[in-house]
Each structure stands twice: as C-alpha cells, then as structure tokens.
Design goal:
Number of strands: 6
Strand order of the largest sheet: 1-2-4-5-6-3
Radius of gyration: 14 Å
Number of domains: 1
Distance between the termini: 18 Å
Shape: globular
CATH class: Alpha Beta
Number of helices: 2
Strand content: 35-45%
C-alpha cells in the first residue's frame, strides 16, 4: 500500500490530501507519537458499516489500519513506500473505539524497511487488539 503523506518538524500536517481516497473514506487521522523513534499513530472511529456479524471491527479493517500505520512510520522518513509483506496476529475484538495503531520502525535499509505495529481499542482501556510486523519497499527516497 502506498501512503502519500507530509510531515513538518513537529507534527503531521493537517491536510485534506493526506492518505489515499480509500484511507480518507475510513476517516483515518495521523499523529506523531515519538519523533525520535519515528513512531506514528493512525486513529479511526469504529463505524457500524465496518463491523462484522459479531459486532466487532472487521479483521480486514484492522489489517488495513496496521498496514497504513506501518507504511506511514517508514514513509515519513524516507518517502514513498509500498507494502511487501504484513503479518497480523489478532488478540481481542475492537468494539468501542476509537481504534489506534501505533507503528515504530525497527529497521530502515537502502531498499526496504520493517515496522512493528500495535493496534488498541482506546475506548476499552487501550485493550490490545492486534500486533503486526510490516515490511515495505522504499520506492522513492525523499
């Protein structure tokens, strides 16, 4: 997944054109968690149209959130990236929201990068919903 984003020295710029049209349709919101570590957050509200039959957030939506957060954490540092591989472990359902994915780069090389992502239900005492590891290909160094 390619993630076009912009960043200034202190935080992510508030702009209507951050993310892809699909990402914007989910209502994703980006933030900086730890500038030195390169950690970013991507938040979203749980909407009824994103819930599965059991009433919790669909796994595909959680995977997308983890993907966007991981790619963003690396992309903010190097430029345009595309996801090569993602592994997600689902730990608990997301039912309340908002849901937050926090991604931290683990390694950024010449051609690819790896990020660790933790997805929590902030409305349910920050319940850990999923963990993911994401590998991205660096397409264009900024």
């Amino acid at each position: 997944m390619s993630v076009p984003v912009r960043q200034n020295d202190t935080m992510l710029e508030e702009a209507d054109d951050i993310g892809t049209p699909f990402q914007r349709s989910l209502g994703l919101r980006w933030g900086v968690v730890d500038k030195e570590a390169g950690s970013v957050s991507v938040d979203m509200n749980i909407r009824d149209d994103l819930r599965g039959p059991a009433g919790s957030l669909e796994g595909g939506v959680i995977s997308t959130l983890a993907d966007v957060a991981g790619a963003s954490a690396i992309g903010f540092q190097v430029g345009l990236v595309a996801t090569e591989h993602i592994a997600v472990s689902f730990l608990a359902p997301g039912r309340v929201g908002p849901v937050r994915a926090v991604a931290t780069p683990q390694r950024i090389g010449k051609y690819d990068g790896v990020a660790e992502v933790r997805v929590t239900d902030t409305g349910k005492d920050n319940r850990l919903m999923a963990v993911a590891t994401l590998t991205v290909r660096i397409l264009d160094k900024s």
